[in-house]
Amino acid sequence: MKKLLKYLDNYKKESILGPLFKLLEATFELFVPLVMSAIIDQGIANRDTGYILRMCLLLVALGLIGLVCSVTAQYFAAKAAVGFATRLRRALFGHIETLSYSEMDTVGTSTLITRMTSDINQVQNGLNLTLRLLLRSPFVVFGSMVMAFTIDVRAALVFAVVIPVLCAAVFGIMLAGMPLYKKVQRGVDRILGITRENLTGVRVIRAFGREEDETAGFDGENEALTRMQTLVGKISGLMNPVTYVIINGGLLAILWQGSISVNIGRLTQGQVVALVNYMSQILVELIKMANLIITITKALACASRIQSVFEEKSSLEEGAALLEGSEAASRERGNEAEQGRKQDAERGTERRMEQLPAYGASVSFDHVSMTYKNAGAESLTDISFTARPGDTIGIIGGTGSGKTSLVNLIPRFYDVSAGRVTVDGEDVRALPLEELRSQIGVVPQKARLFAGTIRENLLWGDENADEDRLWEALETAQAREFVEKKEDGLDARVTQGGSNFSGGQRQRLTIARALVRKPRVLILDDSASALDFATDAALRRAIRNMKEAPTVFIVSQRTSSIRYADQIIVLDDGRMAGIGTHDELLASCPVYREIYDSQFDSGKKGDGAEKITAAGKGATGNERQK
Q: What helix, strand, coil percent values describe the chain, rounded to 5?
């Protein structure tokens, strides 16, 4: 909690004035029993009506002054607590945005949501009550004891016994409850995770008729959380009865001691009433203190959970990797250029850099291996290849072979565990993340659209893009036709997740969003799976014919989508099973041949999808210049 208090720096004045006005209110409250004692001993005993009225007016004045002080304290405390929570929430959100995919995978989305919402609210409430009561309640308790000693030392000894016993009971209950509150919050995390998973996957759950299973799983977690909350509630529930028993025992002792003192003339009736009032004030304040401690206990547990997120440092440190030197970098670029020239000669292509300016970036993998955090084995092992500017690279392999893991290394969503990835000869770990990712357009496996309009979704690619650029991106992504048919065009509404569009339309809109950025490297991670063969071929042709053609990485399960790529990388269990053109791999790579044969009847080449994909010939790859 101490580390989080820095977000209270802008509210130092409110943090001081709030408790100060509460102490003023408590000071005026401590005078009330003395006034009551005077009314009884002098006003009522002497039947002095004027004195009684004057004292009553004094009581009203003390009440009004206390009310003003209380309202002022509430205002300052609320302002400080809400301001603190606002800054903390903003800082936490900003920190979460800096975390890499590895940390996101480890912590979990549902946990982060809980800590952004419920936990921060608990801390805010705890801070609010702390500013109002943390000083006031102890001040009233010890102030009452001091005032009691001014009345009668012997009777006040009861206060000296009762207060330590009360403190021991209160703090004992607090220490027993604090770890349990942490367990409760973890249970809330699990409930939130299940709820989020069910709501986001409700269509799949219903499609497979798993409603009863999911309900049963939720009920189990909910019952476990209920049992934990019940246990915490029972422990917390001990607070009030224990304090009442101790305080009422103290009241009995005071009344017994007071009655004896009144009989022998050592105390007056008014003084005994004052002592009882002071004990009652202690009772009220300690009940407040007990509830405050419960709230503070929750707040401290939540603050600890929030701090644990802040302590989660991103593994993606900018400039973490340094190139060997400018000479080494230049030598690397020269090697890449020479390798590219050799490949051109071997394939017999007629491409000339003068005829087709290379807008795309050179991307190189140099003996790259990658292991996910806390994983037992490598997901990628010893991957090496080079993509020249403007090349189209196809990536294919079985499920779980590491296709997405490979392309995620280019924008540095994850870091390599060995080797290095370079863009234009620069190690991606040595580049500022913003600079690196500004050159890359990523279309993920699952098409994700945000609530708003088509225009707002496209502007995620580049918020400064004009309308012509948006339509150009839509046309390249084969999305212009259906967007033009919308009544509002670019301003047509998009529901959360894009559920008011078909799967193919969502994919084309996400591709258009990436193209708006005019990336130098475009990653299509199985992003055309919902498109028919003809649309897929037209999309690849349109991307290849862009004035500023990027270097394209196409992850696909279809051999037809990558058939005409400059290079095809075949992955098998995280290793590179083959690399080359379509024809080369058919002849030399059993894994690729198996995938191809599973999709096309090798004895009937040229029919069905084979004919349709021929439309893409020359659009992506070796024959695009014909």
A: 65, 10, 25
